[in-house]
Amino acid sequence: MQMQTFSYDNKIVKYFLYATLFWAVMAFFFGVLVATLLFFPTLPEYIFGSDDGTIGGNIQGLINSQGTLGFGRLRMIHTTFAVFAFVGNSFFTGAYYSMQRLLKTRMYSDVLSWIVFWGWQLFIVLSFVTFILGYNTSKEYAEHEWPIDILIALVWVLFGAQMFLTIAKRRVRHLYVAIWFYIGTWAGITMLHVFNNLEIPVTFSLTAPKSYSLYSGVQDALVQWWYGHNAVAFFLTTPILGLMYYFVPKAANRPVFSYKLSIVHFWSLIFIYIWAGPHHLLYTALPGWAQALGTGFSIMLIAPSWGGMLNGLLTLRGAWDKVRENPILKFFVVALTCYGMATFEGPLLATKTLNKIGHFTDWVPAHVHVGTLGWNGFIAFGMIYYLVPKLFGTKLASVKMANAHFWIGTFGILFWVIPMYVAGWTQGLMWKQFAADGTLEYGNFLQTVTILKQWLYPLRAFGGTLYLIGSILMVINVWKTVKSGSFIANEEAEAPALAPKTASRTQGEGVHSWMERTPMVLTIAAVLTLAVGGLVEIVPTIVVKSNVPTISSVKPYTPLELEGRDLYIREGCNACHTQMIRPFRDEVKRYGEYSKAGEFVYDYPFLWGSKRTGPDLHREGGKNPDAWHYKHMWNPRSTSDGSIMPRYPWLIENKLDRELTRDKMKSMVALGVPYEQEDFDSMQVSMNKQAVAIETSIFKDANDLKDLYAKKEAEAKAEGKEFVPLRDREITALIAYLQRLGTDISAEQVETASN
């Protein structure tokens, strides 16, 4: 058969690799910064200024920062950098390199490759800018506002087009297992991203985007965690498995252990994974049948996950002697081990027995980081160490430095996750502990925070710092390797033309072999396999009314409360506070009546949260006076000694922007919220009346604040400057929202449409 010559495009691989290195350091740096804020909450004051006499500067500096170092905003930046920037770019690096070699062809279009590259980097940069400025939707792993959602979709579709067009011009008939996982990844992420991010824009401004989720309450929670869990599945797992199936055999110079196990692994994984999302919502207001499905399929996930792990580890049979000397294989072995640990622990946490203790605690981020740091990170590091010498036609500059990176990174993982495991178990058990007299042993939530702050949170930050140092060593090693070699931009290759199909070739062919040489059939089968779980779980929750009983006393938010809710989202308060009281004795005792599905019908989006760094707020309304909330937001440690909550003085200084309030209400009407015309006509009067009532309440309970504002008003008048009364400031709207939380069902009679 005639041989054809062509070249592989290594330039796009190099750029994605460099982007991976850059965003890796950024992701780990912001991770350390976020971890530091949990035991050093006054860090922004040291940077920007404070009214604390022991800290230099002026409080105006902190006010002017407008929350740029706020924990809630930085957490979103860290997760986006880690998931989409670091892992995303590492996937593109490996996919662009491996697809060309597995398909024996250059990528379909160099132009498309560069559009995908720059489009993806633009998405990451825009995410950083918008999160810093407070533009977000609050939905975990999907906090990006609608213009960025559209950008992500466009770039992802273009990547899919590039992949399928490249497959169409391949020179090998059958698709290797790594390609199956790439196809499954593309199909899964496309479906998840589109349906989770269906939203109504409040404004079409690209500089100040604002939207509301198409779903509310229970429905939004289910769709979000159908997305959120499967973002882990189809962005942090399946694409990395594709890389594993290519790079582990290459590095070990051994074939994949079992082709049949690969088939079972792929199809069972993508079928089962999509059902598991509801395990993030156990004991919540989610219907019981959906919770049961989530638990059942989560437990089943152990089988395909461990099948994949074993397929990877057993590929190293006969090559274990190389592991002692080869840092690449070291990274891969630990990565696969961490994959196995994370995919065993996840199903355990999905059981109701362990979930009642672990949910909302630090156990959950510990579990997640075993996967991200160990599985995703170490696969990426091993792949980079494998690729750079090949791209530059040289040897790795320092094997010793790579080995040092491995050990520093490994200890970094241990120092990160072990303290968090201990923290999670400590939290969960302390929250549930009752004294002999029937009262909570640790009735003050801060008691459960103080013990973690002392040494567990600093140890976590230390572990993250080690991991960051390891990544910097990798950057140095890569730089030295690049300097010692010469980049091969277009790598020459040759392969025979694609052999035509013949009857003898297909005679006796199995079903899966046929699918492997028929990419369209394989893709359609993957889409159908993925769609089943989502349809069964989500559609009934949306269309069957009994799944979300309505409560007659639950009313829409007032215009001022709606603005306050958006401020709550802007500052990322949902990162630390939940709004979901589970039906446990300890939670009801601590927070109040457990949460009902019908209470959230006007919550676009839902704000149930996934982590209690601070207490639950679903019954916060009426617990504390307005003046307490004011002082708490000015300085949490003035009202709650030992609090690790950030300060929010800009909320007190900023004038509330009411320009979009009417548009927000119109969007809510489009979503089904029953605002009437009179609500629009009386909007300003209603907002003023509620704001004045809060101002009056604050001044009544806090004479110092009354005197302060009287003094500020007099000074402004004397200087001819505008004075903004307390009633017109952002803090008033936020207080209005907080005081509303959980009060609807405190009516004397609560009627439900169904049980």
Descriptive overview:
- With 755 residues, the chain is mainly alpha-helical.
- It folds into two domains: 14-499 and 521-540, Cytochrome C Oxidase, Chain A (Up-down Bundle), CATH 1.20.210; 559-746, Orthogonal Bundle (Cytochrome Bc1 Complex, Chain D, domain 2).
- It contains 31 helices and four strands.
- It has helices at residues 11-37, 43-48, 59-65, 71-103, 110-133, 146-168, 177-196, 217-235, 238-252, 259-273, 288-300, 302-314, 320-323, 327-349, 352-358, 363-391, 399-432, 445-484, 503-506, 511-516, 519-543, 559-570, 585-591, 626-634, 636-639, 649-653, 661-671, 677-681, 683-701, 703-719, 730-740, and strands spanning 3-9, 199-203, 210-213, 490-496.
- The strands form two sheets. The protein has a two-stranded antiparallel sheet. Strands 2-3 form a two-stranded antiparallel sheet.
- A hairpin with a 6-residue loop joins strand 2 and strand 3 (210-213).
- Helix 22 (559-570) packs across helix 31.
- The longest helix has 40 residues, at 445-484.
- The protein starts with a strand and ends in a 15-residue tail after the last helix.
- Mean pLDDT is 93; it is low at 747-755.
